[in-house]
Amino acid sequence: MSDWHTATVTARAPAADGLTDLVLDIGDGPLVGTHAHPGQYVRLRLPGQPPGIFAIASPPAPHGTQWEFLLKDDGALPSALLHLPTGTLVEVTRPEGPGFPMEKARGHDLLLFASGSGISAIRPVIASVHQERAAYGRVTLYFGARTPGSFAYAGELERWQAGDMRVVRTVSQPGASGWQGLTGYVQAHLGEEPLENAVAFVCGPAEMVQGVMEHLRQRGVPRSAVFLNY
């Protein structure tokens, strides 16, 4: 049985096509300090709605009271959440899941794979890497979106790259957008990057996760070096 607490909607803003940033204030109660690992998730619910699972998109902060989420306008609960006015109360659980094991990536090259709203679970990993960049080898983010306008956190990409991280973006459905960058799925763009010392963190739709894991297996990356956040 989940242990439910209340949080308050403090901000909401468009993040990309079909995606919205939502910020909840958890107050100074029992949830403070419970977000311990990048990639953890919580359950959110509203009266009369079944709960849903959402990754915390902000990095762990021992004394922080603001949790960020990236909502995809897909389904009754996300649609209701992204239309809530500020000040509305939302029910939330303590963070769940192991998150991503940053300690296992230390001293290794780190491959980050995210597609669509899956970047929400990878964003806190990036923040943690930047806090002690020298602890990791080469860091590459493979970030896929359906269209050029559906990359969340587009305004942060330059900052991520300035923090000594390679960002590889690819679009699966460019259409007539005039997109000049890479197309197709994220796993198609590993290229000849050496992977002998690599650890991979992966988040996205099940089909994308399976595709990435199979590609990494073919490239010789052991399953023990590939991590999901659940």
Automatic annotation (TrEMBL):
<dbReference type="InterPro" id="IPR039261">
    <property type="entry name" value="FNR_nucleotide-bd"/>
</dbReference>
<dbReference type="InterPro" id="IPR017927">
    <property type="entry name" value="FAD-bd_FR_type"/>
</dbReference>
<dbReference type="InterPro" id="IPR017938">
    <property type="entry name" value="Riboflavin_synthase-like_b-brl"/>
</dbReference>
<dbReference type="Pfam" id="PF00175">
    <property type="entry name" value="NAD_binding_1"/>
</dbReference>
<dbReference type="GO" id="GO:0016491">
    <property type="term" value="F:oxidoreductase activity"/>
</dbReference>
<dbReference type="GO" id="GO:0050660">
    <property type="term" value="F:flavin adenine dinucleotide binding"/>
</dbReference>
<dbReference type="GO" id="GO:0051537">
    <property type="term" value="F:2 iron, 2 sulfur cluster binding"/>
</dbReference>
<dbReference type="InterPro" id="IPR012165">
    <property type="entry name" value="Cyt_c3_hydrogenase_gsu"/>
</dbReference>
<dbReference type="InterPro" id="IPR001433">
    <property type="entry name" value="OxRdtase_FAD/NAD-bd"/>
</dbReference>
<feature type="domain" description="FAD-binding FR-type">
    <location>
        <begin position="2"/>
        <end position="102"/>
    </location>
</feature>
<dbReference type="GO" id="GO:0006221">
    <property type="term" value="P:pyrimidine nucleotide biosynthetic process"/>
</dbReference>
<protein>
    <submittedName>
        <fullName>NAD-binding oxidoreductase</fullName>
    </submittedName>
</protein>
